[in-house]
Every structure is written in C-alpha cells, then in structure tokens.
Amino acid sequence: MSEQNSETQDPTKKRTIRSFVVRGGRMTEGQQKNYDANWAVYGLNLEDGRIDYSEVFGRVSDVVLEVGFGMGASLVEMAKSAPEKDFIGIEVHPPGVAKLMMLAKEEGVTNLRVYCDDAIEVMAQCLPQNTASAFQLFFPDPWHKKKHNKRRIVQPLFAQQVSNVLRVGGHFHMATDWQPYAEHMMEVMEEQVNYQNAAGKGEYHPRPEWRPLTKFEQRGERLGHGVWDLIYTCTSNTNG
What we know:
Keywords: Methyltransferase, S-adenosyl-L-methionine, Transferase, tRNA processing
Catalytic activity: guanosine(46) in tRNA + S-adenosyl-L-methionine = N(7)-methylguanosine(46) in tRNA + S-adenosyl-L-homocysteine
Pathway: tRNA modification; N(7)-methylguanine-tRNA biosynthesis
Number of domains: 1
CATH architecture: 3-Layer(aba) Sandwich
EC number: 2.1.1.33
CATH class: Alpha Beta
Strand content: 15-25%
GO molecular function, one term: tRNA (guanine(46)-N7)-methyltransferase activity
Structural class: alpha/beta
C-alpha cells in the first residue's frame, strides 16, 4: 500500500498530519494513457470541493471509503462483489490510481470513484460529513522504527477525522500485518470516546469474508505472518 502519514513541512500549517509520503509517483507512458482515458469516468477532483454521494453515483446507497488502496485490485474486487454499494478510493500514487481505473473498466465496475490526492485534504474539503457507511485502511505503512512511530496515520486526530465522515453506526476497518502497529491501532482506538470495538473491548476482529486476500497477504500467510483486523463502530459525531 502507499506510504501513510508524514508531518507537514511548514510548521505554521494548522494541519499536522498528511496521509502519505509520495514515493515513485512518476507514471510510464502506458499508465499515463490509462489515467487520461479513464479519469473522466472514475476521477474526482479535490478542487471541486464538497460532493454529494447521490449526485456522484446517481442513487442513494451505502458508501464505502478506502484510503491507500495501492494498485487497486482488492478495491475493484470489493466494488464488483457488492454492486448495491458505492466505493470511493483515495490514493496519492498515480500509477496505482491508473491501475485501479483500468481494472475497473476491464471488470465493468461502475460503482467506484477515485481521488488522486491527500486523504486528509479530501476528507476535510470534499467528503460529506456524517454520511459514509464504512472507512477502510488496509496495510498502511507501519513505520517500524520507534522514532518514526509518530508518522503512523492511525493517531487520535485521524480517528476523529474519520468519525467526521462516518455516519453513526458506520465502521472504521483497519488491517495490518505488523503486530506492533496492530497494538498501536488498538491503543489509539480504545481511547476514542466516539467509537466502540465491534469485536469487544481489546479484541481483534476475525477477517471478514468480504475483505479480499491480497497477493501480499497471501504471501505473508505462506510465510507464517499474522494479519490483524480491527473494526470500530462510530457511536457519535462531533460535527453533525
């Protein structure tokens, strides 16, 4: 998945979290062609401001948000498997966005849109408040070194920002293959007063059948690596 969370470079900025570190963002000629060919159908622009989900998708539905979808295969699979729902992916890595749109077109998926931008800005400026049914964050950068732990995207402020775009009863679903990060996620989320652990206080959630196994995850399983899912229900909003 894309790199998640770094600090802003300008200390005068109010916002202190970014949802990514851009690495290797240049596209090949073929990726650029796919990007340009499919953006008009699947792309959403930060500068267009606040959207209305029913206008974007032409219907009222449950909307699932995902940050950091990598190359997009699992998100396309989820959208294809749940045509009654609508999905919005947010990813800053242009080759991944190009790949997702290409896969969606090949699979005939119409219930999917994408932002190629910083998730923090998209959440603040574009997404309807207190509306989404689910927010997914799968395999974000764990920032293994202790001195870099503060760069992890799952922090109290981010949890609050997620709750602002979720409806009451919506779910914040995280997954990681790095146990210290799973423990960090648990520590952060158990302290949030507007979330409740869907598996019970201090418990990890079994992997839901609808979350596709990525090639990365399948490889990890073969090597004996664990994967931890955490699902928290939003119980209240502070901005609605």
